[in-house]
Amino acid sequence: MTLSSPLAPSKLEKLKKLTGKGRPAAEAPVRSPVRLSFLSAQRDFPLVIEATGTDLDPVAWAREQRGFIESMLRKHGGILLRNLGLNSPQDFEAFAETIEPELYGGYGDLPKKEGGRNTYRSTPYPERQMILFHNESSHLERWPRKQWFFCELPSPVGGATPIVDCREMLRRLPADLVDEFERKELLYVRTFTPGLDVSWQDFYKTDRREVVEQRLAAAGIEWRWLDEDTLQTRTRCPAVMRHPITGERVFFNQVQLHHVSCLDPEVREDLLALVGIDRLPRHVCYGDGSPISDATMAVVGEAYEACAVRFDWRQGDVVMLDNMLAAHARDPYEGPRKIVVAMGAMYDRAALQSQPGERSGTPSTDMAVSPSVVSSLAD
């Protein structure tokens, strides 16, 4: 079988080639709706996802790219999302619900956001003081794996939400110190005193003592009533855990937030004078009851600051964290500031400890990513 030779082009076709007339228009490249980058060339934490135009539907995008978002969260530990067109707390809640349909609405440590179903206002803590680094609810029997922060209104001065990669924390801390934390664990002592910190009624969402006692007993938490309306709980928790999905070891705790040496000196003196060491609203020691030295906490604090990533909030920004891979804090600020919080994918400590396969260290397979939806990190 022979192939016929191609027909010679006609004069008209030659003319069209010379003039460009009749040439089919080249297809415009598909423009990615988002661009990926990092805040610094030295770190891949957090990943920055930024809309490239103004026509992105954030909820539709999140629905289509839920698997991609999840895989990037597991890889990087934190995602900063910008310019998505989230203009209100309601927009933000709809966006977060698309990623995690069952947002957690029963958290007692934060006040509920007005107008929201399962969102919260940020911690009502004095503006001029820093909220130290912590993993949300790591001192409790249940915690969220996913946490979101939405900037409704950035403060004019300060007010950053520093974030830390908890895998990097383990790499930076001295090995013998990590070993001590891992062996001894932590004992969190919390005292719910009327007028100091959150009340036990607000935290447990009930004013019935017997209901609180039943919940504490079911969770294996020790408790005692110091007086008619002052509840003290004692909870032993790991300081280092293995992520149940990625298998990575992480520095997962609230040791800095609870240790008395980390308080502002003036606040520390006032609290100790008012209630004494045994009735501090929050206190922590090693799991065997031995004290954690101020020198140890200084090393921990230096490591947190060495790992900390800070950025200026922009209105509409969202930070999404894997709460087990990343810790967060709050810098002092001046002026009005509104940050809205959401959380979901709740984990139960007892359930994780009863399922060794969950902590075997075998990383899960990342979900497929639609290649047309993201542009190169080099953009």
From TrEMBL:
Lineage, top ranks: Bacteria, Pseudomonadati, Pseudomonadota, Betaproteobacteria, Burkholderiales
Protein name in the entry: Taurine dioxygenase, alpha-ketoglutarate-dependent
SUPFAM superfamilies for the chain: Clavaminate synthase-like
Lineage: superkingdom: Bacteria
TauD/TfdA-like domain boundaries: 49-343
UniProtKB keywords: Antibiotic biosynthesis, Dioxygenase, Oxidoreductase
Signal peptide: none
Cofactor(s) needed: Fe(2+)
GO biological processes: antibiotic biosynthetic process
UniProt KW Oxidoreductase keyword: yes
Stretches for region Disordered: 353-379
One Gene Ontology molecular-function label: 2-oxoglutarate-dependent dioxygenase activity
